[in-house]
Amino acid sequence: MMDTKKAMNAQSSSDKIWTKDFFLICLANFFIFLGFQMTLPTLPLFVNELGGSDQLIGIIVGIFTFSALLLRPYAGHALDSKGRRFVYMTGLAIFVISVASFSIISSIAVLLLMRVVQGVGWGFSTTATGTIATDLIPEKRRGEGMGYFGLSGNIALAFGPALGLQLAGIISFTQLFLICAALGLVAFLLSAKIKYKKVEESPAKSTTVKFDIFEKTALEPAVLLFFITVTFGGIASFLPLYAEEKGIEGIGLYFLVFAIFLMLSRTFAGKIYDKRGHIYVFLPGTVLIFIAMLMLSWLPGTPALLIAAGLYGLGFGSVQPALQAWAVNKAPDNRKGMANATFFSFFDLGVGLGAIVFGQLAFQFGYAIIYLTAAGSVFLSIVLYVYLLLKARARYVEN
């Protein structure tokens, strides 16, 4: 009887999500995301102050994500070989130094260079943090756990952009960027207290592929994510300028509403994924994002802006953690780091390409076309998902 009780207690403990280390990684993730989110809507304003155009804004936003993209495969390998602590803390340190450097920059060329450096730090840290969270969450509760982990970034998103815009109006950009760097430093100090999982030894070292830049089991959810995060490039880079051009107030409130609905979706979407699968999360979520993009392309006033924020938050908050759990669950234990690297590489690629392409579109045709094009990208993700679903079912019937 006692043995049975001990076994039940051990099982209950192994299924627990909210451990000390999981709390610490969530808290560290909150601070680094808060520092990042405060720069997101303010960097375009800073580039404007330095005399940059819409095209340059797109490039400066995009180059950050491309440098992160190029480093993610190495980060994935390093996570699986050198360990989680090395990659995460290195990334955080680079991020803090690069953001602090923004405070003394007065040239767009130098800003472009330091955005590349910032992307390296961001690529290392965000690839690592997703893998660390995955290590700490019980497998059978991974969708739910990743949803909770995502809340740490979402809470930062609720306050970061609005706080950054508010501070940009009352303090200098120098002071703003130093505050953002200090928040990253807090994340670094918290990360030093985490007990990290030891790396898994590969069972087949002799068959290592030299040109190994992605985890093939994660490709399907990662490609679907790419078409969705294209929308994020348009919002992060140009929505404040678009709203200002239209004379619409409430852009700070947009990010707050978006984040609130994003957090709301995290409370139930992960559980639905764990119990019913991604089909019950992905399709409703992408439809909501599609409608939000159409509303932004129309944008008659502040109410439409805030409704779009709520729809986008519900949709993105449902889809992103479900796709990440899908990507990680399919990967072998010794390839979890590479699976996360693959997933976030396509995240970066979507944001980066979106920012650069939308910068060119805005220069030629105005801001409204950005969100109409983004809606088309979301529609492509729905079409691709249905194709993959039908293909998988046909394979199941054959077997």
In short:
This protein is mainly alpha-helical and 399 residues long. It has helices at residues 2-14, 20-39, 42-49, 54-81, 84-101, 108-136, 142-168, 173-191, 219-246, 251-276, 279-298, 302-329, 336-365, 368-398. Mean pLDDT is 85; it is low at 4-10 and 204-210.
Task: Show the helix and strand layout.
Elements: H1 2-14, H2 20-39, H3 42-49, H4 54-81, H5 84-101, H6 108-136, H7 142-168, H8 173-191, H9 219-246, H10 251-276, H11 279-298, H12 302-329, H13 336-365, H14 368-398
Helix pairs in contact: 2-6, 2-7, 2-8, 3-4, 4-5, 4-6, 4-13, 5-6, 5-8, 6-13, 7-10, 7-12, 9-12, 9-13, 9-14, 10-12, 11-12, 11-14, 12-13, 13-14
